[in-house]
């Protein structure tokens, strides 16, 4: 029963992380305009994400524009896009496999060992999804930091970390933690003892 609860905890952690991965991919606040310069007076805040750039005015009006060309984007944006999409797909497949392999479901109850291995496979997919998210977010953050501290970058054109990066780091942590719980919930079956228990009654009958 404790093992089943451990699986449920891991699954819901990974599921919450996977939903956060989707939110991170869709959010446009991967980087936001910095106000670190002297005497900067502006009523517009600029945001950029993987799919669009937005401008937020002091009146509360937000205008967003989708990137016109995929090939004209920087390499780190294209790579982060690909990694986040892969993470979403891996998380989706991992969610389905984990549900099939969990003890609280009735699928495959006749073979608990294979069922537990299926759950471990789902946990491994969640681990890969979290790892892809961690790489994408960290790579993007590294590029933002590099441009911010680059002396050739104008002060008025510098960007800082957006809220989407912090959501992405939290999503990667939750997904990897939940996947680890699912991977650690696999019971160790003593097949030799089971075979002895199953074969002992039949041997006694033959002797009688």
**Average predicted confidence as pLDDT:** 82
Strand order of the biggest β-sheet: 4-3-2-1-5
Q: State the share of residues found in helices, binned by percent.
A: 55-70%
Structure class: alpha+beta
Tell me which CATH architecture applies here: Up-down Bundle
Summarize the structure.
Keywords: Cell junction, Cell membrane, Membrane, Tight junction, Transmembrane, Transmembrane helix. The protein has 208 residues and is an alpha+beta fold.
What are the salient characteristics of this protein?
PMP22/EMP/MP20/Claudin, 5 helices, alpha+beta, 208 residues, 5 strands, Butyryl-CoA Dehydrogenase, subunit A, domain 3, cell junction
Outline the structure in words.
It is a single chain. With 208 residues, the chain is of the alpha+beta class. The chain has a single domain, classed as Up-down Bundle (Butyryl-CoA Dehydrogenase, subunit A, domain 3), CATH 1.20.140.150. The chain has five helices and five strands. The longest helix is centred in the middle third of the chain and has 37 residues, at 112-148. It starts with a helix and ends with a helix. Mean pLDDT is 82; it is low at 190-199 and 202-208. It comes from Geotrypetes seraphini. InterPro entries: Claudin, Claudin_CS, PMP22/EMP/MP20/Claudin. Keywords: Cell junction, Cell membrane, Membrane, Tight junction, Transmembrane, Transmembrane helix. GO terms for molecular function: structural molecule activity.
């Amino acid at each position: 029963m404790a093992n089943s609860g451990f699986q449920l905890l891991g699954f819901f952690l990974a599921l919450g992380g996977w939903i956060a991965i989707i939110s991170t991919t869709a959010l446009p606040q991967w980087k936001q305009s910095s106000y670190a310069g002297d005497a900067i007076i502006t009523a517009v805040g600029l945001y950029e994400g993987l799919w669009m750039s937005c401008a937020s005015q002091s009146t509360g009006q937000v205008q967003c524009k989708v990137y016109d060309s995929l090939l004209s984007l920087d390499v780190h944006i294209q790579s982060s896009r690909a990694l986040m999409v892969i993470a979403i797909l891996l998380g989706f497949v991992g969610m389905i496999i984990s549900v099939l392999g969990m003890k609280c479901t009735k699928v495959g109850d006749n073979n608990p060992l294979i069922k537990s291995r299926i759950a471990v496979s789902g946990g491994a997919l969640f681990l890969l999804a979290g790892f892809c998210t961690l790489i994408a977010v960290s790579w993007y953050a590294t590029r933002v930091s590099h441009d911010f501290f680059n002396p050739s970058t104008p002060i008025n054109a510098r960007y800082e970390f957006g809220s989407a990066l912090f959501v992405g780091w939290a999503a990667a942590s939750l997904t990897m933690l939940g996947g680890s719980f699912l991977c650690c919930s696999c019971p160790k079956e003593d097949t030799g003892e089971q075979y002895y228990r199953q074969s002992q009654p039949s041997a006694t009958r033959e002797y009688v």
